[in-house]
Design goal:
- 38% of the residues lie in helices and 24% in strands.
- By secondary structure, it is an alpha+beta fold.
- The protein has one domain: Orthogonal Bundle (Arc Repressor Mutant, subunit A).
- The radius of gyration is 15 Å and the shape is globular.
- It starts with a strand and ends in a 15-residue tail after the last helix.
C-alpha cells in the first residue's frame, strides 16, 4: 500500500470514481460495475465510492496478465 505524508499524517492515496474514470479513460458506470463484480477493491466514504491506489495497481496488473480478455464480460441468464 502506498502512503504519503501530509501535515504530519500518513495517508493513503485514494481516488473517487469520477477522478479515476477520467484517469483510466473509462466511463464511471464501468468502474461501478467492476466494483460490484469484485474486480476492483473499493470502499465507501459517506455516499461515495473511493478506490485506493494499490487497488488500481492490482487491477491494472491483472489486466496485463489477462491481456486479450475483455474488461467486462456480460452474462445473460437465459433458460434453455
Amino acid at each position: 500500500m502506498m502512503f504519503y505524508k501530509k501535515g504530519g499524517f500518513w495517508m493513503n492515496k485514494v481516488f473517487s470514481i469520477n477522478a479515476l474514470s477520467e484517469f483510466l479513460d473509462l466511463h464511471p458506470e464501468t468502474l461501478r460495475s467492476l466494483i460490484r463484480e469484485n474486480k476492483m477493491r473499493a470502499f465507501k466514504l459517506g455516499r461515495k465510492w473511493m478506490i485506493e491506489e494499490s487497488a488500481v495497481n492490482e487491477f491494472l496488473d491483472d489486466q496485463k496478465a489477462n491481456e486479450g480478455r475483455p474488461l467486462l464480460v456480460k452474462t445473460t441468464n437465459q433458460k434453455a
